[in-house]
Amino acid sequence: xxxxxxxxxxxxxxxxxxxxxTSRQTLTWVPDSFFSSLLSGRISTLKDxxxxxxxxxxxxxFAPILNFLRTKELHPRSVNVHLLMHEAExxxxxxxxxxxxxxxxxxxxxxxxxxxxxxxxxxxxxxxxRNRHSVAGPQYMSGRTGPVERxxxxxxxxxxxxxxxxxTLGKMLVEEKPSGHxxxxxxxxxICGHHNWIAVAYAQFVVCYRVKESSGWQQVFTSPRLDWVIxxxxxxxxxxxxxxxxxxxxVAVASGTEIILWAICPDGNGSEIGVFSLNVPVEALFFVxxxxxxxxxxxxxxxxxxxxKHWQNQDxxxxxxxDTAGSFLLLGCNNGSIYYIDVQKFPLRMKxxxxxxxxxxxxxxxxxxTALSVYLTPKTSDSGNWIEIAYGTSSGTVRVIVQHPExxxxxxxxxxxxxxxxxxxxxIMLSEKHLTSVCADNNHVxxxxxxxxxxxxxxxxxxxxxNSFKILSLEDIDGLGGCSAGTEIGPYGERDDQQVFIQxxxxxxxxxxxxxxxxxxRLCEVRSVDGTSITAFVVHECEGSSRIGSRPRRYLFTxxxxxxxxxxxxxxxxxxxxxxxxxxxxxxxxxxLLELLDQCDLALTRTPDMSPRRLLHPLQHPxxxxxxxxxxxx
Length: 634
Fold this sequence. Notes:
The model is unreliable at 1-8, 133-180, 350-354 and 610-634 (pLDDT under 50). This protein is mainly beta. Among the domains are: 6-104, Potassium Channel Kv1.1, Chain A (2-Layer Sandwich); 280-470 and 625-634, YVTN repeat-like/Quinoprotein amine dehydrogenase (Methylamine Dehydrogenase, Chain H, 7 Propeller), CATH 2.130.10. The protein is elongated. Strands 1, 2, 3, 4 and 5 form a five-stranded mixed β-sheet that branches. Strands 15-16-17-18-43 form a five-stranded antiparallel β-sheet, with no helix packed on it. Strands 6-41-40-39 form a four-stranded antiparallel β-sheet. Helices cover 12% and strands 36% of the residues. The protein is built from nine helices and 43 strands.
C-alpha cells in the first residue's frame, strides 16, 4: 500500500480540485466498490502535490456520496437524484444506487401516469411464407391478382394469453434478419389510425387492432412476413358502399415503388386484394374514401378504384404536398400550381386524354407549393361549401385563398399573405381558430389567431400574430433508427378543436413532449412505462361508444423499440390543462435538453432535412413545366 496516500488510517482525497479526508473504514464498508479497488491497488492512482489521491470527478456530487458512506443516510431533496445516481453507479455504491432508484421511481410506475391508457405487447412474429412479395423478379406484376393467401390471425384481448411470446419477436429476429437495412426489425416503425382501428407497421409485417369499450383492444389482422422493409402504411376502417364486401376494412403498405393492399373481413381474416406498382418511390400512401392513393414527388399519382378494382397511374408535374377535402385530392406542385382531382370520378374521361385533373390556383410568384391545408366550412348554401386553403411555398411565403360557393367558376381569390418564414414551409394547418405554419429552420413554428363570421374566415386586415417557437427534433443521420413517416411532429387533431404537436427531441429516448400547436405550451410529457425507446407515434381520435352522451376521445399512441404499443389519454390531459393554466413550459427546458442530448451522439443525428433541394425536383424548373397526363388502366 505504499502508493496510497494516508496518515495511519486516514485517507486524503483530491476530488476535482477539492480536498476531502476520511477513514479507510468509511471508504471501504461497501464491498467491491471503486474505493475498495483503489485502496487495494487494483486501480492505479494519481497523486497531487500534497500526496492526496486525485479523482477527476465532480466534488459537489462526491460530498453527499461521502456523507452517505459516513452516516448511511441520504437527504435527496438537497441533491439532483438523477445526477447523484450516475455518480453512485460510477463509484459502485450499490446501497446508495438502490435508494436513489427508489427516489427516482417514486413518481413513476410500470402502470404509467394518470394519462396512461393501455399497453399492447409485441405481436407474435408471423412466419415467412413463400410469397411473391419481392421487389426483384419479373413475377412482381402491377395489379396482379390470383389465389388469395390467408394471413395468420391470432385474436387477443388487451393483454394476450401468450405473454411469454412477447419475447418470441426478438428471438426470431435474432435468428433471421430481414433483407434491407434496418437497425431493429422488431421495433415499431409506423402507426396510423382510422375510426376505432389502428395499424402498426414493423419492418416486414403490419398488424391491425380495433377497440370496443367492453372488450378493449383486439388484434384482428396480421399480414404475412414480406421480403422488404415497410416505408408507408394506410388504413381504411370504414368502407362505404360495400364495394369490397359488407363492413370490410382495408390496410395497405408500401416499400420503394411497390404497394400491397389487403381486405380485412369482420371475422378478422384477411385476404390480399392486389400488388401494385407506382413505378417510382412511393412517398405518401393514404385513402380518400375507399380509394387508395399513392403519390411521389417525381410527379406520379396512383389510384386503386374500389368499384372498378383497377390500379391507375397518372403523370403530373412534380408534387411537393397534398391534402384532402371530402372526395377531393389537392396537390401542391413544383410549378406553383394547386391541382385537384375528384377521386370518385378519377377513372372517368370527358373525352380522350382529358382527365379530371384541374388547376385550381397558381401562386402569384410561381413558387413551389411545399405545404397545403384545406378547410371546408359547413355548407352555407345549396351550391356547396365555402372553401379555404392555406399553403406555404419554397420561399417561405404563407398564403390563404378562399372560394365562395356562388363564385365556383371564377376560382379561389387570394385573401392573405404572410412573409415571416425565410426557409421553405414544410407544414401548414388552417383550423377553426388558428393558422399554423412550420418551416425548415429546425421546425420553426408561427401561429396566428383566425377570426370568423358565421363560420367563414373574416380576418381583416390580417390575422393576429399569436406565437413563434421551435419543435426541435433530431433524426438518425443514417436513417436506420426508425422511419420518418412514423415520427411526424403534426399538428394532430380535428380542425375545429385545439391541435397538438408531438416532439421527440433525440432519436433514442423514452420521452416525448405534447405541445399545444397554437402557442407551443407543454400540454404534458409522456414517458415510456417500460423504459423502452419511442420509435413511432401518432395522435388519433377514437369514436365514442353507442351510449347516449358519449363523445370521441383523443389518444396518443406510441410505438416502441421492443415492439409494444402504449396509449395515452390526451382528452384527459386537455381537461386537466383546462382546469389549471397550461404550463408555461414548451418543449424541453435548457436543462432537460442538455440531459436529452447527453443520451445521444450528435455526430450521428441531424435536424429534419426539408431544404429546397429536397423539396424541389432537381431536373424541373417551375417556370418551364407543362402539365402532362398519361393514363394506364390495368
